[in-house]
Design brief:
Largest sheet: 8 strands, antiparallel
Low-confidence stretches: 1-5
Shape: globular
Number of strands: 17
Length: 205
């Protein structure tokens, strides 16, 4: 019997590089990397880890920005289409894999942190409504259509085993109904900023 092979934590890079525009780094994605994107979006990464990431849905222009709480002013570097903020969160590296529909961000802890939790401060001032269902956070337009979303987070431990993390939202009102969001009132955030918390339990670092 062959030994179980650990799953790679990061998928293959989509961006071929990054360009500095207006104080942010924007990914360079070839046409074949955008082909087939169901929900195309534009991403702008900050030059320093503590700055906000900007994300905009290309169809509706609904947008959010988010910053990792406690991140340092570590400068961005890039390698192989991946953006890296080395040692940006209490010594942990922060990485972004940008693609045609947004960005996947990863935090690499070599040792167990004091708290198995990270927090993002999210600007929702240009969002009509919020919905948190099945460990997924959706940003809705005025008609109730989800335009941007935070996918269910996960953790991968040192052995390559993957398990679910838990997503929570503080400081804003949100819809928690499992019913489809269309055709009913949108739950407005009632605040311009929210805290998105991700907690987990990892067996091995």
């Amino acid at each position: 019997m062959l030994p179980r092979q650990p799953r790679p934590a990061l998928g293959e890079a989509v961006a071929s590089g990054f360009e500095l525009q207006g104080g942010f780094l924007r990914p360079v994605i070839a046409a074949d990397g955008r082909r087939g994107a169901a929900r195309p979006a534009t991403v702008a990464l900050p030059v320093h880890a503590g700055g906000p990431v900007r994300l905009e849905d290309d169809t509706s222009h609904l947008s959010v920005s988010f910053a990792l709480r406690g991140a340092s002013d570590a400068a961005i570097t890039t390698a192989g289409g991946i953006a890296i903020y080395a040692g940006a969160l209490a010594g942990a590296d922060v990485l972004h894999r940008v693609h045609a529909e947004g960005t996947e961000d990863y935090i690499v802890f070599e040792q167990r942190p004091a708290r198995e939790e990270i927090v993002y401060d999210v600007d929702v001032s240009r969002v009509a409504g919020l919905r948190l269902v099945s460990n997924t956070l959706e940003f809705l337009d005025e008609g109730g259509a989800p335009r941007l979303r935070v996918a269910p987070p996960y953790v991968m431990d040192a052995s390559g085993a993957r398990s679910e993390a838990v997503l929570a939202l503080d400081g804003c009102a949100f819809d928690a109904s499992p019913r489809a969001p269309w055709g009913r009132p949108v739950t407005q955030p009632a605040a311009s900023r929210c805290a998105v918390r991700v907690t987990w339990k990892a067996a091995a670092y």
